[in-house]
Write a sequence for this structure.
């Protein structure tokens, strides 16, 4: 044992953390709620002491099919007994199957697998720049993005979003991004120049406050990009895989992108991301130009395949739309009940934002006390993100708990 080192048992004890708070061994990059979950089933989470919480956060739109979905558990368990990882130096049967299914269900011709939304967005940016390089226009490398967006935590995706709060202290901002107001088609057109490679947006800005891009806006972006000879990149990390009520949100506008970033729901809780692209847009990603050690490994793609099994079943997305309407109407009644607190209810599918007259953290904390989980966002918004399999009675229960939380917040603001 080296000088100054502690015995293993002492180290574990010192870093296990007090019961009343998080472990000091974990980096403090999150202001975590002081609750630890031990198990989950469907739309519910449970602590070791048996306290049950209704999960209207879904791991920030990740647990699309809730917790411990039997088909996902079966797929992961079966694959875990066969093969976990080989790397992308070899063919991966599950990856080829999942890619073919995504191609069949979307606009895409090609799929690149990774592990997260940030990686998927980073891959989409690289694909767009390489496309212009290989087609004889290396000067086209800049990308028009929107204020209020969120594309991940890598240095490039932080620069793409341009949020000063997240960029502070990380050195010079990665160049190549031109920011315009969200929803402003004229601003996008004005920002496009001879160096522009693409426009990159979220169909619904989740982190930015659940700002929904209109169908006309998305159609206009498609037309502007076509006219300029540039690519349209969609970040559907939060909106994809059924959360909008369609498989992907852009389907509501009747358009297709050239490149799309996907993650969160596609793995149902297992880390999985993907870059989907047309044949033309993927032309620059030749061997050696991009990669991922873990991306698309047998475990991840087995779960992703099981997610698609459920989401693509006939009638499943119709049911999501019905649940979304029920939730939206129920939350609208909260706006009527608490007009001084709830300023707006907006969203798409089961991605709904409640705009507040108070700090979102106050409502998130009050909701936690009522044992319902929701998520804060920008623009003074709380996101409501139940799993796609949430039952009607669970929607009613969740809204009742939110009403009690708002009553508590209202009493404190008087």
């Amino acid at each position: 044992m080296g000088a100054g080192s502690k015995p293993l048992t002492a180290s574990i004890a010192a870093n296990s953390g007090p019961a009343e708070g998080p472990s000091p061994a974990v980096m403090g990059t999150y202001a975590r709620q002081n609750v630890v979950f031990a198990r989950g089933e469907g739309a519910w989470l449970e602590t070791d002491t048996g306290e049950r919480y209704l999960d209207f956060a879904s791991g920030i739109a990740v647990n699309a099919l809730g917790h411990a979905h039997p088909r996902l558990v079966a797929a992961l368990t079966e694959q875990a007994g066969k093969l976990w990882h080989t790397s992308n130096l070899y063919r991966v049967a599950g990856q080829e199957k999942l890619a073919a299914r995504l191609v069949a269900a979307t606009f895409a011709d090609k799929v690149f697998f990774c592990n997260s939304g940030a990686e998927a967005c980073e891959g989409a940016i690289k694909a767009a720049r390489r496309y212009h390089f290989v087609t004889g226009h290396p000067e086209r490398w800049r990308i028009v993005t929107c204020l209020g967006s969120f594309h991940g935590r890598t240095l490039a995706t932080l620069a793409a979003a341009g949020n000063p709060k997240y960029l502070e202290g990380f050195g010079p901002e990665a160049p190549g991004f031109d920011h315009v107001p969200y929803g402003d088609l004229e601003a996008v057109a004005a920002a496009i120049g001879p160096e522009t490679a693409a426009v990159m947006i979220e169909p619904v800005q989740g982190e930015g406050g659940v700002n929904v891009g209109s169908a006309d806006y998305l159609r206009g972006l498609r037309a502007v990009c076509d006219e300029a000879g540039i690519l349209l990149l969609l970040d559907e990390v939060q909106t994809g895989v059924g959360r909008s009520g369609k498989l992907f949100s852009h389907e509501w506008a009747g358009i297709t992108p050239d490149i799309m970033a996907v993650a969160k729901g596609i793995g149902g809780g297992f880390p999985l991301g993907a870059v989907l692209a047309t044949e033309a847009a993927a032309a620059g990603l030749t061997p050696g130009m991009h990669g991922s050690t873990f991306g698309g490994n047998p475990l991840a793609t087995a779960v992703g395949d099981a997610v698609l099994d459920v989401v693509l079943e006939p009638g499943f997305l119709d049911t999501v739309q019905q649940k979304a309407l029920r939730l939206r109407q129920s939350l609208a009644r909260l706006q009527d009940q608490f007009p001084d607190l709830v300023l707006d209810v907006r969203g798409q599918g089961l991605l709904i934002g409640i705009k507040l007259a108070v700090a979102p953290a106050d409502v998130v904390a009050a909701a936690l006390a009522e044992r319902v989980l929701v998520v804060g966002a920008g623009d003074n918004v709380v996101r409501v993100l139940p799993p796609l399999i949430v039952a009607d009675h669970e929607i009613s229960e969740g809204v009742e708990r939110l009403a009690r939380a708002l009553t508590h917040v209202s009493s404190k603001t008087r």
